[in-house]
Design brief:
The complex is a heterodimer of chains A (114) and B (114). Chain A has no helices and 11 strands. Chain A has strands at residues 4-7, 10-14, 19-25, 33-38, 45-50, 56-59, 62-67, 72-77, 86-92, 103-104, 108-113. By secondary structure, chain B is mostly beta strands. Chain B is built from no helices and 11 strands. In chain B, the strands form 2 sheets. In chain B, strands 2, 4, 5, 6, 9, 10 and 11 form a 7-stranded mixed β-sheet that branches. In chain B, strands 1-3-8-7 form a 4-stranded antiparallel β-sheet, with no helix packed on it. Chain B is globular and about 35 Å long. Classes of the chains: A mainly beta (114), B mainly beta (114). The interface between A and B is medium-sized, with 28 and 29 residues.
Chain lengths: 114, 114
C-alpha cells in the first residue's frame, strides 16, 4: 500500500528552537524521500531529499534522519526562524516505468513565533 | 524565468458547470502532473503525462479530463462541477520520470464549486 503518514498536523515553536516533523511509510519499494516546503499562496518547492542508502542528510539548518528498518524518516529544522513558517510535506517515490509519482504525507503547518 | 504557470488563480463555479484550468511550462519538461490539495489531506495526483499525446490516471481522476497536445501545455478539464471538487489545484512538471527527479509546481488555482 502506497501511504505516507505524517505527524504532527501542526507545530508551534519559538524562534531558535528545533522543529521536528515525522513521517512513516509502508511500501518498502520506496527509494526516494523528499521534503517539500510550501508558503501560503504558493506551490510546494523541494527543500531537501534523501535516499535510503544513507541515514542522515544535512543542508544548512535542515536535516533529514532516515531509519530504514523502522520505515520512518524525519525533518529537523535547527535554530528555527519565523521565515521557516510554512507547510511541510514529506513524500516518497520509487523507480517506475513511467512518471515521478510522489506519494505525499498529509502536511505539517509550522509556525515559528518571534 | 516563468517555470510552471497556471490560470486562473481563483474561480467560482456553479454546480454542473464546466471549466478548464490551464497549465503551461517553459522548461521543456516531458513529464507534467495535476494534483489537488485539500486541508489535512496532502496532495493527491489527478492525472499525469509522460509526453505529448500520452496521459494516464492518478489516484483521483474521476470528474476530470486532460489532454497533452504539446510539450508545454497540460490543461485540466472539469466536467459537471460538483462541490467535492472545491480544492486547490496544482500543476507540476519534471524533466525525467524517475522517482528521484525534482518536481516543479505552479502557484495553484483555487476553485470553489457552489
Amino acid at each position: 500500500q502506497q501511504q505516507v503518514k505524517q505527524s504532527p498536523q501542526s507545530l508551534i515553536v519559538q524562534k531558535g528552537g528545533i522543529s521536528i516533523i515525522n513521517c512513516a511509510y509502508e511500501n518498502t519499494a520506496f527509494d526516494y524521500f523528499p521534503w517539500y516546503q510550501q508558503f501560503p499562496g504558493k506551490g510546494p518547492a523541494l527543500l531537501i531529499a534523501i535516499r535510503p542508502d544513507v541515514s542522515e542528510k544535512k543542508e544548512g539548518r535542515f536535516t533529514i534522519s532516515f531509519n530504514k528498518s523502522a520505515k520512518q524518516f524525519s525533518l529537523h529544522i535547527m535554530d528555527s526562524q519565523p521565515g521557516d513558517s510554512a507547510t511541510y510535506f514529506c513524500a516518497a517515490s520509487m523507480e517506475e516505468t513511467s512518471g515521478s509519482r510522489l506519494t505525499f504525507g498529509e502536511g505539517t503547518q509550522l509556525t515559528v513565533n518571534p | 524565468n516563468a517555470g510552471v504557470t497556471q490560470t486562473p488563480k481563483f474561480r467560482i463555479l456553479k454546480i454542473g458547470q464546466s471549466m478548464t484550468l490551464q497549465c503551461t511550462q517553459d522548461m521543456n519538461h516531458n513529464y507534467m502532473y495535476w494534483y489537488r490539495q485539500d486541508p489535512g489531506m496532502g496532495l493527491k495526483l489527478i492525472y499525469y503525462s509522460v509526453g505529448a499525446g500520452i496521459t494516464d490516471k492518478g489516484e483521483v481522476p474521476n470528474g476530470y479530463n486532460v489532454s497533452r497536445s504539446t510539450t508545454e501545455d497540460f490543461p485540466l478539464r472539469l466536467e459537471l462541477a460538483a462541490p467535492s471538487q472545491t480544492s486547490v489545484y496544482f500543476c507540476a512538471s519534471s524533466s525525467h520520470g524517475t522517482g528521484r527527479n525534482t518536481i516543479y509546481f505552479g502557484e495553484g488555482s483555487w476553485l470553489t464549486v457552489v
